Amino acid sequence: MTPLEWQITILRSMVVVLMYLFLFFLVVIAWRQSQPQPAQHPAPAQVGSGWRLVVVDPGETTLARGMIFPLTSPLSLGRDATNSVIVPDRTVSAVHARLVRREGYWWLEDLGSTNGTSLNSARISSPMIVSPGDILTVGGISFRLEG
User: Fold this and answer.
1) What is the pLDDT of residues 55-93, one digit of tens each?
2) Which residues contact 72 (CB under 8 A, 6 or more apart)?
3) List of residues 6+ apart from 123 with CB closer than 8 A
4) Which value, in Å, is the radius of gyration of the alpha carbons in the chain?
């Protein structure tokens, strides 16, 4: 092999090594992004600290915009008269959702409702921590959490 052929062979080898390094770093980055990230939770809620639910969209119900429900643990929402917040809407289940204080935080849980419960326009499938300013939706009725 001539010196020029050696140089070309070395350059080709370096390009191959650099391509494999590049692919390796892409895989590492993709793997890191697929790993669960630690949750950034708000400061723990204090019971009796003025937390409340405020009706922001009453839908087609007798609830009034601005109506306030003080947060007590647990607080249940649904059509049935046994709920803390009675939501008179046929799209709301008898016992639809619940807000409960656990581990220093307020958690929103859907209780197997037919039409689901949403937190900030995203339907929830497991208990979620809520923060002041979050919008909770059951049926066609929306509430804002204030604290």
Assistant:
1) 999 988 888 999 999 988 889 999 999 999 999 888 999
2) 47, 84
3) 116, 117
4) 26
